[in-house]
Amino acid sequence: MAHCYYRALSSVRKWGGTVDDYLLLHRWFDQSKAILAYPRHRALRHHAEGIFMLEAIFGETLVNADGRVVPVRLVGEQHVREDLGSIPSFADWARLITPQAWMLRGNPLDGTEGVTIDMSSLGEPVASSPSPPAEATVRTAI
């Protein structure tokens, strides 16, 4: 894993300016190392959605020390490509997660066991009770 400083140097070679122009962007991508100091930390931000998040947080462009306008998205793409070789989607990362029993266990919210909701023909809830009236059709159970 390259240090953010070296990613910023790479940005300087590409678009000019100084390391400080790009360092915050590269640090943002690698902040997840604080919770997982292993390459898997990249699953949190090193993907297409992460690049768009970077742009949403830092703006569409930056003006570097040379006065050049640089698209933030390009800096994000550079970071991810240098780390991974390509830009995956979040779905690419998620497909690699092996579901565990605790991930699949669904539990009702407190106090909702056995509560049913009668839905009108328009799909709007009309009543909530522990058990539906005999003539009602239950379409959704919580």
Topology overview:
Layout: H1 4-15, H2 23-30, H3 48-58, E1 61-63, E2 69-71, H4 72-84, H5 90-94, H6 101-104, E3 116-119, E4 125-129, E5 138-141
Antiparallel strand pairs: 1-2, 3-4, 3-5
Helix pairs in contact: 1-2, 3-4
Overview of the structural elements:
There is one protein chain. The chain is of the alpha+beta class and 142 residues long. It is 37% helix and 13% strand. It has 6 helices and 5 strands; from the N terminus they run H-H-H-E-E-H-H-H-E-E-E. The strands form 2 sheets. It has a 3-stranded antiparallel beta sheet, with no helix packed on it. A two-stranded antiparallel ribbon has the order 1-2. The radius of gyration is 24 Å and the shape is elongated.
Can you give me a brief rundown of this structure?
The protein has 142 residues and is an alpha+beta fold. The protein has 6 helices and 5 strands.
Strand count: 5
Radius of gyration: 24 Å
Main sheet properties: 3 strands, antiparallel
- Which structural class do the helices and strands define? alpha+beta
Q: Give me the number of helical elements.
A: 6
Q: Beta-strand level of the residues, as a percent range?
A: 5-15%
Sketch the topology as an H/E string, one letter per element. Answer: HHHEEHHHEEE
Name the strands of the widest sheet in spatial order: 4-3-5
Average pLDDT for all residues = 85
Distance between the termini: 46 Å
The unreliable regions are: none
Helix content: 25-40%
Shape: elongated
Quickly list its features.
single chain, 142 residues, alpha+beta, two-stranded antiparallel sheet, 6 helices, 37% helix, 13% strand
